[in-house]
Amino acid sequence: MSVNPAPDSAATPPTSLGVAASASESDLVIKGITLDGQQFRPSDWSDRLCGVMSAFGADEQLRYSPLVQPALRDGIRCVIVKRELGELEPRLFKFFLSFAVENELQITYDADAVATLLPAAAKRLSVDGPAAVKPAKNEDY
Fold first, then answer.
1. Is the pTM of the predicted complex or chain greater than 0.85?
2. Which of 25, 66, 131, 139 fits a disulfide with 72 by CB distance 3.0 to 4.6 angstroms?
3. Pairing label, strands 55-56, 105-110
């Protein structure tokens, strides 16, 4: 009779599996700060990068793709790449990720990063109701 050894749970720590799972289920946020804490230049880098997937509308105004959006979060220019882009166009998703890695930019994952682009008043309205709405400075584009 042969006995199979139990799988070695120490070989794959659960934290690394959790990070991989959450990253694949989250939006990619590329911050305009390098790994050594320097601000990334030029200052319009996020607009330029998002321009890769932009198009002009019928009104001749530039429209960013809903899958790749420039943002201003905590005073830092960022690019939010929706996780759906990885499913629809894996090579484009890899392009954005490679850009961040090659330029040594900080990368984070957010479960719904585009929702954080809502103006503060709209966020309070959705949580507290209409009485809580006050004018607020909008940091969105």
1. no
2. 139
3. unpaired
